[in-house]
Specification:
globular, 6 helices, 200 residues, 8-stranded mixed sheet, alpha/beta, 24% strand, two-stranded antiparallel sheet
C-alpha cells in the first residue's frame, strides 16, 4: 500500500491578496482552517509547506506539522516538490497538493478523490464541480477561477480525462467545469512535472 501525505503550500506574498494565509476567519488563520480540514480526512500525515517566517511563527502556536522551504518558488507545485523531497517518499507514494486558500473544501470530496486515485492506480487526479447556472457567465469571464474541459458529462461516480484547463474559455464549450484546488499525484509524476518547461 503506498503512503499518502497531504501537503499544503503557503506563501505570504500573494499578488491579489497579500498576507492571505494569515487572514483570520472566526479568529483562526485561513491556512489553519485548511490544515484542520485535511487532518479530518484521516488519509495520511498533513504538513504545511512554507518558506515564510511570518507563517511559520504563527503556525508554531498550533502545530509542528510544517516543512520549511526556500522563500521563493515559481509555483506552489515547485514548493510542494521541495517539501516532498524532504519527506524521502518513494516513487509510488502519493502526494496530495491541497491549496491553502480552500477552507470550505469538502473533506468527503478530498477523501473520495484520494481513494479513487489509489484504487484505480491513476498517476494524477484532481476535482471539478458544476458551474452554477445563475453565475455561469460571471465565472467563465473571471480569470481568477480556473475552468476545466472534459469530453463527457462529469458526475460524482465517473472519472474523466481533463482535456484542457482555462482561465478565459470559450463559452460554447459543452462540458466545462469549475476546477477545484487540489491535485493527487504519485511522487514520480511530480518529479517529472517540475522538470518540464513552464508554459504561459
Amino acid at each position: 500500500m503506498p503512503k499518502v501525505v497531504i501537503l499544503i503550500p503557503s506563501r505570504f506574498s500573494a499578488k491579489r491578496l497579500p498576507g492571505k494565509p494569515l487572514l483570520k476567519v472566526n479568529g483562526i488563520p485561513l491556512i489553519l482552517h485548511v490544515f484542520r480540514k485535511a487532518v479530518e480526512c484521516k488519509i495520511g500525515k498533513v504538513f504545511i509547506v512554507t518558506g515564510d517566517l511570518r507563517i511559520l511563527n504563527t503556525l508554531k502556536k498550533f502545530t509542528k506539522n510544517f516543512i520549511i522551504t526556500k522563500k521563493k518558488h515559481r509555483t506552489g507545485t515547485d514548493r510542494i516538490y521541495e517539501g516532498a523531497k524532504k519527506l524521502k517518499l518513494s516513487d509510488e507514494d502519493y502526494i496530495v497538493n491541497l491549496q491553502g486558500d480552500e477552507p470550505l473544501i469538502s473533506k468527503q470530496d478530498v477523501s473520495k478523490l484520494i481513494k479513487k486515485v489509489i484504487k484505480k492506480k491513476i498517476n494524477i487526479g484532481t476535482l471539478a464541480c458544476k458551474l452554477e447556472s445563475y453565475k455561469r457567465k460571471k465565472i467563465i469571464n473571471n480569470k481568477n477561477i480556473v475552468k476545466v474541459q472534459t469530453l463527457k458529462k462529469l458526475n460524482n461516480k465517473n472519472i474523466l480525462v481533463a482535456e484542457d484547463f482555462f482561465r478565459l474559455p470559450n463559452e460554447r464549450i459543452k462540458y466545462l467545469y469549475h476546477h477545484v484546488g487540489i491535485y493527487v499525484y504519485k511522487f514520480k509524476i511530480l518529479k517529472s512535472f517540475v522538470s518540464l518547461k513552464q508554459t504561459t
